[in-house]
């Protein structure tokens, strides 16, 4: 439980850091198609596909869930996962809108290929989890067969998501910091802040996977 | 066993692809401090900290290792890990040499922070595995205590390594492909090739972690 509180704090810290990075250094948020629209992308991806996702994955690790009826916990688990999915889709919408309004092609970078693959796996996970565990008529053998697969992809998708965040933050810093005293190479305050944030996101992911592995 | 053969082929394919990327599109290899010196970096990191590392981690998953004396397998496991470590150090030496001879600062990017953290964890893993499992006088309780930690970090380090490769390939493509018809955004053949290579490296990592998890 102190571990739970620590993970929760770390998750919130990641969200707060990505929010204040975009607000303080990257010009804030808007829906006008400029780089201020792009800024929703990191915030929503980290909040949705890392932090809310991690919360959803850890629901069954709370000891309270081990006795009593299972359905309310299933509903909580899948609602958190659904919330994560909604933020993820909005986060992708933000970057596609930004690219379209700037005339930038979509889906060229390794970051975007890896990111989209992660989101597609996540959608399959949601649909399959829904079909196998939430629909009351799914047969027990199907649940038993699918469960280890579901748990394995639960961790795998989180690792891929965290890896996507790292490459995304890295490339955004190369794009944004490239003149004079603000060059990424010279490690200005923004770079130290965002690199640290990237490492904290990685640590959050590793700790959630560790909690799931036990 | 067919799975073993498949993983081996995939690993060799990753090594072959990173080698031919650097040879064919990035100008080949040399030790003169130019970007041809840099080219050793991706090749050695992928060969060492992904493919050889994966081979080392999977030694105890080969059924032959489950009966008979354990020492030869331990020696194989730690020699492969040592080989991976040597290639890793040479791979880092290549990029530091390139940066120094170009006057580029070291250790500014999130890629480099994440990469160095991975290599430091790998060194600890090697030293601790050596101390706890190979030295004959290590007490049994220490081995029992440390073993789950060793196995957990075995998978974690591989995930971090694969994530470092993804951000490294991504940034290298942004650096190298930035004019006219060769812009990364326009997805020239090199970009398709290297993005695909990045995804294959990720898949290799996920499959090794999956094999370790069972
Ligand atoms: C789970 C996390 C993430 C996923 C799944 C993801 C996915 C994507 C996808 C699919 C695109 C392509 C959009 C298009 O081409 O129109 C993209 C673009 C981009 N993302 Fe992310 N992203 C994630 C996190 C981040 C984070 C945390 C940042 C930090 C700034 C970031 C920075 C970027 C940038 C700069 C682009 C535009 C350049 C490019 O296409 O690579 N991403 N992302
Ligand atoms: C993409 C979204 C989802 C993710 C990332 C996810 C992730 C996970 C993870 C990591 C676990 C293992 C938890 C543990 O071992 O403590 C798990 C278990 C479980 N998930 Fe999901 N899940 C998702 C969607 C769903 C949905 C929509 C349902 C439908 C109800 C569902 C039902 C379950 C059930 C019932 C278990 C526990 C199996 C058991 O203990 O009997 N999951 N999920
Ligand atoms: C496990 C894999 C990897 C690790 C641990 C790693 C580690 C590092 C480190 C520590 C640096 C900083 C060197 C310095 O500042 O002098 C660096 C730089 C670099 N690496 Fe990697 N690397 C890995 C894989 C790759 C791959 C596959 C590529 C693909 C091209 C790559 C591309 C780069 C580039 C372009 C730089 C220079 C720019 C920068 O400092 O970010 N790396 N790497
Ligand atoms: C950094 C290098 C190393 C890595 C990445 C690594 C990784 C791993 C992994 C992933 C496992 C679990 C294998 C499985 O569950 O099938 C493992 C087990 C083991 N490792 Fe390492 N290892 C490293 C270094 C060492 C060293 C230097 C030794 C010294 C002999 C060692 C001794 C062992 C032993 C004895 C086991 C099996 C424990 C048992 O089954 O009793 N490892 N290692
Ligand atoms: O390794 C590097 O390559 C580029 C640059 O030298 C080529 O454009 C860069 O900024 C690095 O740190």
List the helices and strands and how they pair.
The structure is a homodimer of 214-residue chains.
Chain A: H1 2-25, H2 35-38, H3 40-58, H4 71-102, H5 110-134, H6 140-176, H7 189-213
The complex binds protoporphyrin IX containing FE (4 copies) and ascorbic acid.
What keywords describe this structure?
homodimer; 214 residues; mainly alpha; binds protoporphyrin IX containing FE; binds ascorbic acid
Describe this structure in words.
Two copies of one chain form a homodimer. Chain A is 78% helix and 0% strand. In chain A, α3 (40-58) runs parallel beside α7 and α4 packs antiparallel against α5 (110-134). With 214 residues, chain A is mostly helical. The radius of gyration of chain A is 18 Å and the shape is globular. Chain A contains seven helices and no strands. The mean pLDDT of chain A is 94. The A-B interface holds A 104-105, 108-111, 113-114, 117, 152, 156, 159-160, 162-163, 166-167, 169-171, 173-175, 184-187, 191, 194-195, 198-199, 202, 206, 209-210, 213 and B 104-105, 108-111, 113-114, 117, 152, 156, 159-160, 162-163, 166-167, 169-171, 173-174, 184-187, 191, 194-195, 198-199, 202, 206, 209-210, 213. The complex binds protoporphyrin IX containing FE (4 copies) and ascorbic acid. The site of one protoporphyrin IX containing FE (HEM) has 25 residues of chain A, from α3, α4, α5 and α6.
């Amino acid at each position: 439980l102190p571990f739970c509180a620590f993970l929760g704090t770390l998750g919130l810290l990641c969200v707060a850091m990505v929010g204040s990075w975009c607000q303080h250094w990257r010009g804030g948020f808007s829906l006008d198609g400029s780089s201020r629209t792009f800024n929703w992308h990191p915030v929503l991806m980290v909040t949705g596909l890392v932090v809310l996702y991690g919360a959803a994955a850890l629901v069954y690790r709370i000891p309270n869930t081990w006795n009593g009826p299972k359905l309310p916990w299933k509903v909580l688990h899948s609602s958190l996962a659904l919330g994560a999915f909604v933020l993820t889709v909005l986060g992708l919408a933000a970057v596609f809108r930004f690219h379209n309004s700037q005339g930038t092609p979509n889906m060229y970078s390794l970051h975007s290929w890896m990111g989209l693959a992660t989101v597609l796996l996540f959608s399959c996970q949601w649909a399959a989890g829904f079909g196998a565990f939430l629909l009351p008529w799914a047969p027990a053998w199907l649940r038993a067969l699918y469960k280890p697969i579901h748990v394995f992809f639960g961790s795998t998708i989180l690792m891929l998501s965290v890896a996507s965040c790292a490459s995304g933050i890295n490339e955004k810093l190369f794009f944004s910091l490239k003149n004079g005293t603000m060059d990424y190479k010279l490690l200005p305050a923004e770079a130290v802040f965002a690199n640290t944030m990237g490492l904290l996101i990685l640590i959050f992911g590793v700790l959630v996977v560790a909690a799931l592995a036990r």
